[in-house]
Amino acid sequence: MRSLVQKFSLILFFFVGAFVHSADYIKPNILHQIVEETFEGQPLIIEAVIMDNVAVRDVLVYYRVKGEDVFKYDSMSLEFNNYQFEIPPEDVTPYGVEYYILATDDANNIASYPDFNPEDNPFEVEYVRFSETAAPDVLLMQPDDGGIYEDGNQMVVISIYDEEDDVDISSISLVIDGEDVTSDASVDQDFISYIPPGSFDFGTHTIQFSISDKLGNTAPTGEWSFSIKKVEVKKTFLSDATIKGSVDYESEYDTFSGKDQPDNRPLDNQKPKIKLSFSKGLLKATLSMSMINHFDPLAREIDSRRQPLNRVNFTIETPYASLKGGDHNPNFSELTLKGARVRGLIADANFRGLKTTVVYGNTKEMLPAYLQNNDEGMPEYVKGTFSQKLMGISSSYSWEGEPNLVIPVPLSFELGMNYLEVEDDTTSLEDELYGSFVNIPTDSTDKTKYIHQNNSVIGMNSSFSLFNNTRFVGYWAASTITEHNFDPAIDDLTLSAKNAYMLEFTTKLALFDIKGAFKNIPRNFSSLGNSSVQTDIQGLKLDGRTKFMENQIMLSVGFENNRNNLDVLDAQTTHSTTYATNANFSFKGYPGLSLGYRLMSRDGEAVISDTSGVQLSDDYTTTFTIGPSYAFAVKDIEFGLSGNIMLMDFNDNANPDGAFKSNSYMLALTQTFPSKLSLNIGLGISQNIPVSETVTTFSLVNTKASYIFADNALKVYAGMGMIQGNKSASPESQCPDVPDISNRKMTFNVGTQYKISQSQMIGFDLGTISVYDFVAYPRADYTEFRAKIKYKYSF
């Protein structure tokens, strides 16, 4: 009986389920303490507790450097009773980071946090630098400063290098011979190029250039001159070249007491990171390497059977073309290639609005098949992974200008096409038993474990902008995916979709913003270049926002209507309608308040005549959120208070016993003292309260203290946290005195960072994680010990 209770407890523990019924439309509930700031040199870890009535299938965190357009995404890993993910260091920059969380359960119900338009309202993480920031470095690449030329047809090209990649493009000013030509120049993060309407006259000409980064650091104004006359000029090869870079090294140690070392927790991690930049003439090249290696031989063996974690990439750029290699995240459109990591080559060419991009590489690397002993000591065949090759091409034409239609009207448009093909490469697979995949006998059961995929997607995209504040965007795509099964008893499966499309509209005016979207994605549509595309859905979405009193009052409303079963293959079509509204009040000197309300209803429509075995959907969910905040000072001590209350009520008219309430409460307090001491405290509780089951409760506490002294040269910090999970025995439990869930996770860490010089920094971090499961028998408590040292050098 004790064993039965333990198994039942573990099921509840991992899936945090309260009840199950035949038609599940209940979204996961996400408990997350918002990360508001991250310190230079410290890992940025996103954590969340996910509660649902069925198994949670995927938990993804979408993240991007603040100011970028495209989110990257990755899976969060389940660590005891919470999910977590460390955002890669290369994506944690002085810009700051934006992120949101998406959870999907086995019934395809999707929840996001924040709940309302997460892609447009992501959480923002402020980057707090420990060392001083540096202004961008500016280099005149053409013509040479002081250069003398015979030809007056000279292009002006200026290279920008910034270690933090936080150039503020809007701050750029280019003045030639006393005339501001900034608006006529081609501007991006790395190059500013200007082609004069005619040749330069004989004589001396001047160039003045200024730029700042987004942290307010202004580069010294660049002042250069060149002359046009008939004189022979000699220069050395490296006279106009510059090299910049940085070197990081992290060494981590991780060991367990009370349990074996998990496969996903190697004994050590060695993380060297290098970034180099070279500029000469019209050429700019960058190289970045972020590696993860181990001294532990077991960890190296485990890594050899996983997708590689190392990231290596280079970029070679000129004003009109670029070549990228290694690990990148190219973007074609919303329906074809977006956010997926591709290891290979990306070539771009652009001239006068024409742009073509070619991508070739792998989205998965080959992992060899091998033999291992099973629990009975017998050798067992473990299938490998095919490398997955991707080839894509995108071509577009864009134009912008101000045609005089009675009055000058700023207009721009873009029209493009793209094609994507992704295919498993069976020829590359290595096999410990057979030598290679092609050598596996066709009648072997080992071969039937494999499936070969081939995916082709063709797409079109267009956009039209008017008055710099109104934009229309359209995407269309068709796809074919074939799954070839090597079992002769199973036929190949080919799925095709011809009319996947999305239409978007945005307008941003002085008093209000409006955004709308309509999408139609067939069930059979598939793009292995963008796994986040939701299929079998037709939906309309409208959002509006208005601001008053210098943004002190913001009101927003939203409407969304979706339906599935577009191909009428299921017994019912589910229509879901959502109404949402939100109000934010932030008067200077007074507490702020955010209020939100969301109503979602689902109605099932039968598409078959005999509905005796079909339970039609008929449910609704109301969600009310309250977010108070207040920033104030008592003498010289600054305080920040923020909270979030979420009250959700799910009612199912078709199955009243499936009704439940889900509530969460979060509170955060920050204190900053004149002595550069800062304190942070976070509290949270989440409850799942079903009608016919006992209550599941998760509570969390996080605290952190930091102190900076010695003229910002030294910083010390300490933090601790706790997550507690509880659920009383279910009414039908055979052991009513034994709770279904009773566990606790405790964390503690201390660290320090020291600025050795303007270009060098070293840091050290020490921490423990203790896990207690009070239900398990025998007890399976354990403690994890972590240590990390980091060094950074910039030049």
What topology does this entry show?
Layout: H1 2-15, E1 29-31, E2 37-39, E3 44-51, E4 56-65, E5 72-75, E6 77-79, E7 82-87, E8 97-105, E9 110-113, E10 123-128, E11 137-142, E12 148-149, E13 156-161, E14 167-176, E15 179-180, E16 186-187, E17 191-194, E18 203-213, E19 222-228, E20 241-257, E21 268-280, E22 283-290, H2 297-303, E23 311-317, E24 321-328, E25 342-351, E26 354-364, E27 370-373, E28 379-382, E29 387-401, E30 404-405, E31 407-408, E32 411-425, E33 430-431, E34 435-436, E35 451-466, E36 470-485, E37 493-508, E38 512-521, E39 537-548, E40 553-563, E41 572-585, E42 592-606, E43 618-634, E44 637-652, E45 660-672, E46 677-690, E47 696-709, E48 714-727, E49 741-757, E50 760-773, E51 782-794
Parallel strand pairs: 2-10, 12-19
Antiparallel strand pairs: 1-3, 3-7, 4-5, 4-8, 6-7, 8-9, 8-10, 11-13, 13-17, 14-15, 14-18, 16-17, 18-19, 20-21, 20-51, 21-22, 22-23, 23-24, 24-25, 25-26, 26-29, 27-28, 29-32, 30-31, 32-35, 33-34, 35-36, 36-37, 37-38, 38-39, 39-40, 40-41, 41-42, 42-43, 43-44, 44-45, 45-46, 46-47, 47-48, 48-49, ...
Name its key features:
795 residues; Immunoglobulin-like; 26-stranded antiparallel beta barrel; 6-stranded mixed sheet; disordered N terminus
